[in-house]
Amino acid sequence: MAGILVYALHDDEGNFNKNSLGAISEAAKLAGQIGGEATALVVGDVADDAAAGLGKYGAAKVYRAKNVPEGLAQPIVDAMAKVIGDNGISYALFGGGLLGFEIGAGLTARLGAGVTMEVTAVKVQDGKLVAERPILQDSEIADVGYVSEPGIIIGRLNAFDINETGGTAAVEDVEVELSPWSTKATMVQRGEQRGADVNIEDADILVGGGRGLGAAEGFKLAEELAESMGGAVAATRAVVDAGWYPYAAQIGQTGKTVAPKLYLAAGISGAIQHKVGMQNSENILAINKDPNAPIFEFSDLGVVGDLHKIVPKLTEAIKAKKGG
Amino acid sequence: MKICVLVKEVPDAAVQKRIDPSTMRLDRSGEKNLNPFDTHALEAAMQIKEGGAIPVEEVVAVTMGPDSAVRALHKAVALGADRSVQLTDDALAGSDVCATGYSLAKVLESESPDLVLLGQQSDDGECYTIGAVVADHLQMPSLTQVIKIDVTDGKLRCERQAEYGYDTVEIELPAVISVGDAINEPRYPSLKAIMGAKKKPLDNKGAGDVGIDAGQVGEAGSKTKVLALNPPPAKEAGEIIEDEDTNETVEKIVAWLDERKLI
Fold this sequence. Notes:
heterodimer; A: alpha/beta; Rossmann fold; 7-stranded parallel beta sheet; 8 helices
């Protein structure tokens, strides 16, 4: 059976991750073309109807490993390896996200399988899957094929669209024996929110702040600029991890995805992990002192200069214009 | 305990990177440097060693790469590693992630480390996966993109950001941990350390020395194959303003915003 298995990640309330749902829809489309089924794996205490509900996105069957904890990769590698081996599955597909990277990588070692990551699209050639992976700061796209099965495909964030086709999946419980090393990491606390709760997803105008702001105090410049335009402030992962700005304002790979009318990037280099969270903004304006910053390659207006000089004057000019 | 830090030589950030169309591999000629993410892993190793919560006998820098990669090892030693190991073999050229992870695991196995540290990604491959591949081969617990490590009672308490916020995870040793760049500010090597780096022991190992099965590595042993390279969908290049006179720059920005009815 030339099936495709998708790992469906869920949070502590049982909500499935939308990147996982997108991966299921993508798998269903591809499975039809290579002559197989799309199946999904869920771990932990997922209710029958929640598991069966993944059929709505295209899963023909859902494997449920109740004894496997959610949130850490290695126990899920055990579960995926078992389901792939027992059912002769040809490909494992992951939506974007940290855990998918870790599980996919672990499976690569476990199964001696080829892996492609940061995949933005998957196509079928001669009945086999070929992954499209942008490389060298997205300047080229490599078509990557698999020499043998199974093959592992790890998507980039937001790579796969959710497609609701309706339907209910059969649910099959699987008993998974955990590897000794899979039980040596223990989740102490999952999903802790740090810093104030801010809403950036509904803003039409976002000022994104990165390392170029220089310090936590630098965010004052971004806040004043955002305020002058009636917008909100977002941040890169680097500055959130450094404690300069709250986690709720983070955009990118492990943060939020936004598409405002204007995204004004202040001191943001434009690493792929950030780009995937904001590249669909209608207008992108970047201010950065490094003329080689990747952000200039996907901004509509790029300003090469010192933001500490430009931003305060820009804030004043916008205020004056609005006031006048 | 013994800490092994995986390091990699990558093209310097300023070098325009390209793929050699005849091999479909990254053209690695030109100026090279130690992968910047690896300096955070080395710093993390030094902080554990200096922190004293657990005695660290040695920090060993380990790399896989051609002869030139020795310079990355010299840098790693200048940053504090006690010695280094280089796995180099023509048979390894063209290895994909699966084959590279296997090879690194084999060379690490020969060192029996209690902790393996590495940077969360390489500057050239933009790949976040090697740590988890190596860990499964070594049958050790692992965590990637870690931004805080505390050693307590012989275990590691690690923090990292995942899909839903910050996770705190307790991990038993031996373990494989990849670190994010927010974990620390790497130190600068002292002149004395730079001068002394070449005198520190460096072991050269071939694939056979660490028991690598030649059939599982190199281009022939890889499980993925680059079939083609295509340009990305064309995107209209944006306008660029060089800030010379800031008042003028601001005027241009405001006009641009105004045109699009954004203010």
